[in-house]
Amino acid sequence: MSKSVLIKSSLAKKYWMALTGLFLCLFLVGHLLGNLQLFMTDEAGRLQFNQYAYFMTTNPAVKVLSYLTYFSILFHSVDGFLLTIQNRKARPLQYAYTQRNANSKWYSRNMAILGTIILVFISTHMVHFWAKMHFSEMPLHKVEKTIQGQKMELYMNVNENIIPVDNTEIKNKTEIYLKDTDVKLGTAYKDLHTIVMNFFSPKENKMAIAMVILYVLSMFALSFHLMHGFQSAFQSLGANHRSYMPLIKKLGYAFAIVVPLAFAAIPVFLFISQS
């Protein structure tokens, strides 16, 4: 009876591992599409990225998906460690090293280690950007315009209007009011674009090169993790037919290379373009 429960528990963990893993693959694609806007370093690109960041942090549907993503990351991580421990307990007599080496790739045998590296990266990434966007004081998106022959600094409003910086005050981090009154003038964009640019700029951040290296190495870990995880997820869900499994494997390898490579290219580009 206990053995039956163990098998069912193991299968359940594999199903959840597969489902959360595939959901996180979709999240990676969406996150990448948003971050690709960082290749636009001009004012138009800055506004577009800040509008994207505002939408991602205020839209109710996106908020629901965000909480689902946080849950999936935590569940996927915990489930992965539990499966690793359970598998080792189920096989107290390990295969010979040469036999394991012949039957599986090194990254398939070290998914827990790769997953730990990715989890550390996600935590670092969230501290530097996600937490600042949600909880910290941030610079607001400002533009400089010439009005009546004078250059003025203005806040960019979420309705794409501009509000003079003079005679205004900020309440609740982004809400702009007429100074010393309760007259609300608008809500300005948080300038996440500038935060990201400065983070990877050697002129603004002494640790920029170290951060670029960390991000690139983490994307290598993500790539190897996906090489095994993508096709393994489909196998766990029963899609292991000889007619279409080769195609899934090819798509998995392509996904595991293209997506992490594109993510890694962003900090490298930002560092070089600002050097």
Strand order in the largest sheet: 1-2-3
Termini Cα gap: 64 Å
- Radius of gyration, CA atoms, in whole angstroms: 23 Å
Query: Major β-sheet, in short?
Result: 3 strands, antiparallel
Shape: elongated
Mean pLDDT: 86
- Assigned CATH superfamily of the largest domain: Fumarate reductase/succinate dehydrogenase, transmembrane subunit
Structural class by helix and strand composition: mainly alpha
The CATH architecture category of the largest domain equals Up-down Bundle
CATH class of the largest domain: Mainly Alpha
Number of helical elements: 9
CATH topology call of the largest domain = 3 helical TM bundles of succinate and fumarate reductases
E-strand count: 6
Q: Assembly type of the shown chains?
A: single chain
Task: List the domain count as a whole number.
Answer: 2
Q: What share of the residues does DSSP label as strand, in percent?
A: 5-15%
Which consecutive residue ranges, at least 5 long each, have pLDDT under 50? 1-8, 95-100
- What share of residues is helical? 55-70%
Describe, in plain words, how this protein is organized in 3D.
This protein has 275 residues and is mainly alpha-helical. The protein folds into 2 domains: 2-137 and 192-273, 3 helical TM bundles of succinate and fumarate reductases, CATH 1.20.1300; 142-187, no CATH class. It contains 9 helices and 6 strands. It has a 3-stranded antiparallel beta sheet with strand order 1-2-3, with no helix packed on it. Strands 4-5-6 form a 3-stranded antiparallel beta sheet, with no helix packed on it. Helix 1 crosses helix 8 (208-236) and helix 6 (111-135) packs across helix 8. The longest helix has 34 residues, at 2-35. The model is unreliable at 1-8 and 95-100 (pLDDT under 50).
